[in-house]
């Protein structure tokens, strides 16, 4: 099987790297950003180009969600599979006469950060069994967790990731604004953050909840609200209310 | 120096354990909950009792914030230091004629979870230099990070911990409700959660932000809002707004 990756961002970089490490026949990385393409080519040894090769069996488009529809039209070949990597777009976003698929890796990718690829869960969708088995075979070469997933399900996978990753990171960023404003080294929070994450590998997150909100400590929650304003206060009140609702306080 | 710990909850358990490991002369654990006291005595070899010894130099009260004022009155001795361990209460909550102090450990403690004590930052307050040096000496035996902190500053330390730990854990709990409701194994989120935390050991959280909100991807944020209701929707909107505000989107 011959594979082409389209795009040169975070996902393209790591997929290309994972494929090459597992001996998958990645014949080209295609994109519009020469610097980024060059970086991936250097890392993986796979040639890049700004003209798409037409002899691949599978094209994986890893570009911004907003550009996916447009970029998918660049593939004029019919007898091939074209897959996107987005958690929140349907298979039909792909515009072409080829067979369509989705290969959604559940992870937060940054070029600067190495990953253990075998731990990344892959959620797959295809339009027929043969194509599904083809992409499943590919994903299983990289990952220990490969699952079929409809668009309906994939949307909720992505949504849970928004809560557990994107919003969590934003809380870290807001916490850092608090420590910065009060001359507290942010690094003091890191052991606490590490421990918060470690805990839920052993204990259900609902059981692991601590803090004034879950103790319904009105004296302290009121005092803390008085220290806050703007977005900080909105977050505080929203989370406090949500904790109360969850624990029926 | 002779130390007594009052309380038998999560903080009392770990402080007692850390003290004994470092050869600090912990002469008693005092409390009202015999089962819990016994558990700590078994773990540490320190005797427990429901009558407070009166020959200690330092009494550390690690009971619920709400019980602190009441419990602090049990110590009738005058020539000693009495410290509480709360991030969000002033030193004056302690009601007695002894000298007062605060020993606030910035960590999330659960009995079931071992900790690397030397990584826990301690924030200290005392009413005179001699007492400060006394409790500093004690804290430095356990921890690499010991700092003087006024009540004003300690409040913000605790507040940043509420954002970076308590609220983060609540997002994990809400994410689990989403995965549970859609037949997605929550364990699939764990590598993502681990990576989200690892990232901020290397990258500023503000730089590490990913996801539809920071890309201002209105199509996907609108679609995701339509999947949510109740507290989930309130959290989604609040976090989305806050991300927009932070990145001036
Ligand atoms: N990042 C994650 O953590 C993650 C996780 C799972 C799935 N995904 C999905 O993976 C896909 C790619 O995400 P990413 O994070 O890799 O994005 P990214 O790092 O922002 O990279 C996007 C790539 O798309 C290219 N591109 C954008 N518009 C284009 C256009 N009109 N024509 C040609 N190329 C274009 C960009 O080129 P330029 O550099 O020239 O703009 C860049 O190479 C998205 O569908 C995303 O939802 C991402
Ligand atoms: N947990 C954390 O992560 C953490 C972190 C930093 C600081 N702190 C602070 O440390 C202190 C203790 O917290 P914790 O998490 O250890 O609490 P905890 O696990 O809930 O334990 C509280 C202890 O206080 C006892 N207690 C409650 N009311 C009492 C009363 N009226 N008389 C006598 N004993 C009473 C409880 O006894 P029963 O079992 O009989 O109720 C229990 O032994 C608090 O000030 C908290 O703010 C906690």
TrEMBL record, chains A, B:
SUPFAM superfamilies: 6-phosphogluconate dehydrogenase C-terminal domain-like, NAD(P)-binding Rossmann-fold domains. Residues 120-242 form the DUF2520 domain. InterPro entries: 6-PGluconate_DH-like_C_sf, DUF2520, NAD(P)-bd_dom_sf, P5C_Rdtase_cat_N, TM1727-like_C_sf. Residues 2-75 form the Pyrroline-5-carboxylate reductase catalytic N-terminal domain. This is Putative short-subunit dehydrogenase-like oxidoreductase (DUF2520 family). It comes from Frigoriflavimonas asaccharolytica. PANTHER family: CONSERVED HYPOTHETICAL ALANINE AND LEUCINE RICH PROTEIN. Pfam families: DUF2520, F420_oxidored.
């Amino acid at each position: 099987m011959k594979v082409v990756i389209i795009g040169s961002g975070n996902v393209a970089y790591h997929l290309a790297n994972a494929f090459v490490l597992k001996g998958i026949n990645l014949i080209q990385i295609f994109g519009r950003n020469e610097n980024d393409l060059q970086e991936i080519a250097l890392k993986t040894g796979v040639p890049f180009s700004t003209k798409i090769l037409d002899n691949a069996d599978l094209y994986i488009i890893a570009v911004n969600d907003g550009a996916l529809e447009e970029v998918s039209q660049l593939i004029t070949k019919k007898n091939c599979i074209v897959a996107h990597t987005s958690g929140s777009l349907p298979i039909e976003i792909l515009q072409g006469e080829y067979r369509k698929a989705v290969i959604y890796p559940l992870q937060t990718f940054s070029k600067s950060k190495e990953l253990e690829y075998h731990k990344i869960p892959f959620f797959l969708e295809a339009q027929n069994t043969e194509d599904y088995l083809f992409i499943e075979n590919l994903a299983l070469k990289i990952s220990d967790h490969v699952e079929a997933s409809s668009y309906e399900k994939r949307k909720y996978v992505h949504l849970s990731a928004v809560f557990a990753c994107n919003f969590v990171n934003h809380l870290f960023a807001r916490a850092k604004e608090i420590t910065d404003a009060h001359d507290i080294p942010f690094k003091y929070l890191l052991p606490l953050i590490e421990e918060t994450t470690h805990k839920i590998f052993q204990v259900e997150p609902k059981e692991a909840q601590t803090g004034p909100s879950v103790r319904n400590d009105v004296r302290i929650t009121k005092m803390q609200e008085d220290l806050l304003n703007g977005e900080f206060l909105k977050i505080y009140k929203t989370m406090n209310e949500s904790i109360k609702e969850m624990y029926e306080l």
